[in-house]
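[job 4417] fold queue: 2 targets
>>> target A
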Amino acid sequence: MLAPNEVIQIVADHYEVTADEIKGESRKSKVNLARKMVCLALKDIPRTDIINLLNKSYCLINYHIHNMQYQVDQYEHIKQSYEYIKSKIHNQMAVKLTLSQLKSLHDILNHSLSKDTKNNGETLISLHIDDINETVRKRIRNGKANINFEAKQQYAFIIWYEQNALKYRNTNPHGYMTLVDIINQLKPEYAKITSGNSARNQLPLSRGGQYE
């Protein structure tokens, strides 16, 4: 599971509010709903952690959890939001990187994306890499280290790494070591890949049989 602050960001993005609003005192209905959803999404961590994160009382945290569970059971649109948020939480992996590493990664991905793709497979991988690069850009702009990879992005990055990483070993040593650091954090999550199967064989396919 992601760190609690990352969960808050996922919920904030879903409800189009900010993490600071969720942690603050805003009583806007959309913010209040997002705050309750955070409590439900984090219900399995110690209550004291949620209390410290949101600066709310034990009783209020418990009320939010039970209230949102009731709403999930009663209202389809709340249930759909909760299921979507859970899928985002559990399909992501946090990769620990410094801001310096993020900048090196951004340089490499920019260079790679400037090249024309040769086939549909490369184009689809490139789309995922472009999404990763956009997230990296935003993290750098906001001065935030680390990055989250969704499941498909993890597979796509491993394939991209296999095809491109060595090109940067001499031209961008710091960037290359950043790629190695990322892959060392990603691969333990996919023992089936490291045991010999190609990452490409694990990438989900679209209906047309192409890699997504």
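>>> target B
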Amino acid sequence: MLILARRGTRQDPARTHPRRPAGRDSWCPRRHHRPTRAGRGAGHLQRKVPSDGVVMVAHQRIRVGRTYAGKIVTIHAEDTRFRVICDGAEVSIHPRTTQHPIRRWITKIHAPRI
């Protein structure tokens, strides 16, 4: 028996939108589904290290260190690990704990204010 209520309530979760089915695979107009690069983690990306020394890659926090705050690091993403490189030297290696694809390869790295 279906309880008549507003759309999207707990009584009727399948009716979140009148023309689209609910669920993880349903289409969402806000999400921009772009094809990712070959493989789950093939390639390298760049991040600017903030003052706390932690950068985010694929929904995973990578602790680079406050020593590198303000510098641009290159992160080589592999299937099982992330390698962090700054000024040509390897800073650290972090195991990849999430299965999320990398969607942002180069972030907006702003120039310092003068």
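[job 4417] complete. Note on B: The first strand starts at residue 43 and ends at 48.
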